[in-house]
Design a protein that fits this description.
Elements: H1 4-27, H2 34-40
């Protein structure tokens, strides 16, 4: 039971870090042009 006092706050911090990383990627434009990047690997240089 004592381990829950460590694991619950640790999981909350980890979830907040994941949400912050996703928010950072969205606001930096990481997911703006998905179609272009998918087609880029098929083109010849």
């Amino acid at each position: 039971m004592d381990i829950l006092y460590l694991l619950v706050p640790l999981s909350v911090v980890l979830a907040l870090l994941v949400i912050a990383a996703l928010g950072w990627a969205i606001f930096r434009g990481q997911f703006d042009d998905l179609e272009r990047e998918g087609a880029r690997i098929l083109e010849n240089d």
